[in-house]
Design goal:
It contains five helices and no strands. It is mainly alpha-helical and about 150 residues long. It is globular and about 45 Å long.
């Protein structure tokens, strides 16, 4: 199970952070500032910490992804019927992670409300296509190979 969690965390976390980096370049902030923004969630002063804040942001991002993956893995362990349909349940889980992160966690910490149409679109894409589906796919693949222990 730990291996499955690790693989899914690396895949979904990497896809998501690369997408965030590209968006930060497109919208003129740059990846380093974006990563400091991620770190500033649990560490409010991190936005002024330079490279150390950026590295911390990367760790925070993957820690959050680890939590998201672990929750899904435990859900599948208790409801194995979720695994045979990774796209369907990946979309559902992506929507759940979107709601938790963008309608609960981020507004509580940063007060960003209401979201812009662009942020809703990009975050829904990221949470469904880059996070939910890859997590569900990795878990389903490992379960089918009986390596899910």
């Amino acid at each position: 199970m730990a291996r499955t969690i690790g693989i899914a965390t690396l895949i979904a976390g990497t896809l998501d952070i690369l997408f965030a980096a590209v968006l930060s370049i497109v919208f003129g902030n740059g990846p380093a500032a974006m990563l400091r923004g991620v770190a500033s969630g649990p560490f409010p002063g991190a936005s002024g910490w330079g490279a150390a804040g950026s590295v911390l942001g990367l760790f925070v991002h993957f820690a959050l992804m680890l939590i998201m993956v672990t929750v899904f893995v435990f859900a599948v362990r208790h409801r194995p019927d979720l695994a045979p349909k990774p796209v369907q349940w990946g979309v559902v889980y992506g929507l759940i992670t979107y709601v938790v992160m963008n309608l609960i966690v981020v507004p509580l910490r940063f007060g960003n409300w209401p979201p812009t149409p662009r942020s809703v679109a990009t975050q829904l894409f990221a949470h469904i296509v880059l996070v939910g589906i890859p997590i569900a796919w990795v878990v389903a693949k490992k379960l089918r190979s009986r390596a899910f222990v």
